[in-house]
Specification:
Blueprint (H helix, E strand, L loop, with lengths): L16 H6 L7 H12 L19 E3 L4 E3 L2 H8 L2 H11 L6 H7 L15
Antiparallel strand pairs: 1-2
Main location: cytoplasm
GO molecular function: nucleic acid binding; ribonucleoprotein complex binding; zinc ion binding
Subcellular location: Cytoplasm; Nucleus
Length: 121
């Protein structure tokens, strides 16, 4: 006797709205974040973040590894202790991630290889 209600036309959403919205925020790629971390490691000083009203916490609380902004320092410190952040730090300390140039070379779209030159004229 159970089953769907015949007059119900709206389907329930099965997935979280938050995960669907997360893809709307543009995140930097792994290779870009890795490059920024290399610049900091080489001795380039970290610039203070400019104030931005559109970002959480006016853009002052930022995690460079995860490319995320936080509302306040407590939330950012809690993020630093999370498993997600620790995995990301470990990933960034490993070998360099693949770049777009690597992908193009692997697909055969890189620089042409004309072979050895037989005659020089």
């Amino acid at each position: 006797m159970g089953g769907k209600c015949p007059h119900r036309k709206v389907k329930k959403r099965r997935f979280s709205h938050k995960t669907a919205r997360r893809s709307n925020f543009l995140l930097k790629g792994d290779d870009v974040v890795y490059g920024e971390l290399l610049k900091l490691a080489e001795g380039a000083e970290a610039k203070p973040q400019p104030l931005d009203e559109d970002l959480p916490g006016m853009g002052q609380f930022y995690c460079i590894h995860c490319d995320r902004y936080f509302a306040n320092e407590d939330v950012r410190d809690e993020h630093f202790r999370s498993k997600r952040h620790k995995r990301r730090v470990k990933q960034m300390m490993g070998p360099a991630p693949h770049t777009q140039l690597d992908a193009e070379l692997a697909a055969g779209m890189g620089m042409p290889d004309d072979g050895p030159k037989l005659m020089s004229t």
